[in-house]
Write a structure and sequence with these properties.
InterPro entries: AB_hydrolase_fold, FSH-like_dom. With about 240 residues, this protein is an alpha/beta fold. It is about 30% helix and about 15% strand.
Length: about 240
């Protein structure tokens, strides 16, 4: 059991945002939840090809991982994106888990499903867990028949918003995993604030991850985060119409 080691997590941001914005979104969660995780927040490989929903809320530049049609059935630059992320993970990892918001969550599940089927990341250790916020499955059968061919056994937690326009696709993604932890919240397409019960549940989940990885955390900070450690509710929460953000 290793005392000082941290679980390394690749965190993939939403469409036309950035790694630094996802880091800001996650910072509204109690810091003890991922205190013993090394969170890495890269930017997407393509500059935003249009208006970002966070303009005026968070400073540019903004990025996207790949492009898609209105029905989310056809994708552009997806293979290039997957290749880039696989190379990034091998070069900068190994990563124990993935965390993603919307388009980033879609990609996270794809990488895990593809790895389980031997399609990608053969030279990277198996991904052991995933955190999906407003995720979704792909709609292309040629992708689904591989990525979700078998139930995905990686430990996962799925945040599903009651007012999220991706609520149903998020539930479909969760159903592709074995024994997923479902975290429902009343908000929309956003990284939600967590009430005390949710903090407790997610903390227990993250502690179980560390135990499985044979990492012994030091005493967790039980104090609530100060106002400086949280984001005030406001425009950043209004991402409901962000397309596969």
């Amino acid at each position: 059991m290793e005392q000082d080691k941290k679980a390394k997590v690749l965190c993939l941001h939403g469409f036309r945002t950035s790694g630094s914005f996802l880091k800001k979104q996650i910072s509204k969660w109690h810091p003890s939840i991922f205190q013993h995780f090394d969170m890495v927040f890269p930017d997407g490989i393509f500059p935003a090809g249009g208006k970002s929903e966070i303009e005026g809320i968070f400073p540019p530049p903004y990025f996207e991982w790949f492009q898609y049609n209105k029905e989310f059935t056809e994708y552009t630059n997806l293979d290039e994106c997957v290749s880039y992320l696989c190379e990034y993970m091998v070069k900068n990892g190994p990563f124990d888990g993935l965390l993603g918001f919307s388009q980033g969550a879609v990609l996270s599940a794809l990488l895990i499903g593809y790895q389980a089927q031997g399609k990608v990341l053969s030279d990277h250790p198996p991904i052991k867990f995933m955190v999906s916020v407003s995720g979704s499955t792909f709609r292309d059968p040629s992708i689904c028949d591989i990525a979700y061919k078998d139930p995905i056994t990686v430990k996962s937690v799925h945040f599903i918003g009651e007012k999220d326009w991706l609520k149903v696709p998020s539930e479909e993604l969760a159903s592709a995993f074995v024994d997923p932890l479902i975290m429902r919240h009343p908000q929309g397409h956003t990284v939600p604030r967590l009430d005390d019960a949710s903090v407790k549940k997610l903390s227990e989940w993250s502690s179980s991850i560390l135990e499985n990885l044979k990492i012994v955390p030091k005493a967790l900070d039980s104090e609530k985060p100060s106002d400086k450690e949280t984001i005030t509710a406001g425009p950043a929460e209004v991402l409901v119409k962000q397309v596969i953000a």
